[in-house]
Fold:
Amino acid sequence: MKKIIGFLLVSVFILSIVACSKKKTEEEEVLYVGTNAEFPPFEYLLENDIVGFDVDLVSEIALLIGKKIEFKNIAFDGLLPALQAKKIDIIIAGMTATEERKQFVNFSDKYYVSKQAILVAADNTTIVTFDSLPGKSVGVVLGYTGDIAVSALSDVDIKRYNGTSEAVLALKANKIDAVVVDSEPAKNYSAQNPEIKMLVSDLIEEEYAIALRKDETELLDQINIALQTLKDNGTYDELVIKHFK
Ligand code: ARG
Structure:
């Protein structure tokens, strides 16, 4: 009898350890992904779902590294603070890997090359490049690389907006002369609004990458390997075809 009780106790003990460790790995599996879903075609809201190139790309990465993901939609300038505060584990948001941001976070290998574009009214003939912007009122989105680029120019009347669609609305209402924003979203907005057109600026290229906390080096390696796999096996190209017209 004693033997049986002893055996049962040991079994219960082992089972509870197994259950605990299982629970632990299940908890660890979820990767909280921060984004700002106002940046088509990279991330935007369709009904209530966050969709887009970045969403598909990070979902494929998560499959490869065996993690579940959960998105958190936050203001763009709140993403880096949220990452530092461990409210999210990674950021994918069409975020440019700038030298300034590299001081605070690590970036994965680049997954997209972009540049800044200028949106103007379709009948505007006075603005042709960045050199035409001094003396004009120019809309940018707070904290975006377009904001940084236009802020570096002298003599521009900068108007800062909380999102690209807000800046585009101001342009359509003739409140500003131009909007400077990343080329892919600019292409999207100009395609949807015939009253505005896009000029591709001569600004240097920017590279989008996934941001992680500096100490997450193992996750960084896993993400980079997954990214390479997706480029090699054709998945990356399929996503480009799906999201960029
Ligand atoms: N590439 C620009 C930057 O890094 C804009 C990114 C905006 N992304 C977004 N999901 N709202 O500043």
Summary: Residues 115-206 form a domain with the D-Maltodextrin-Binding Protein; domain 2 fold (CATH 3.40.190.10).
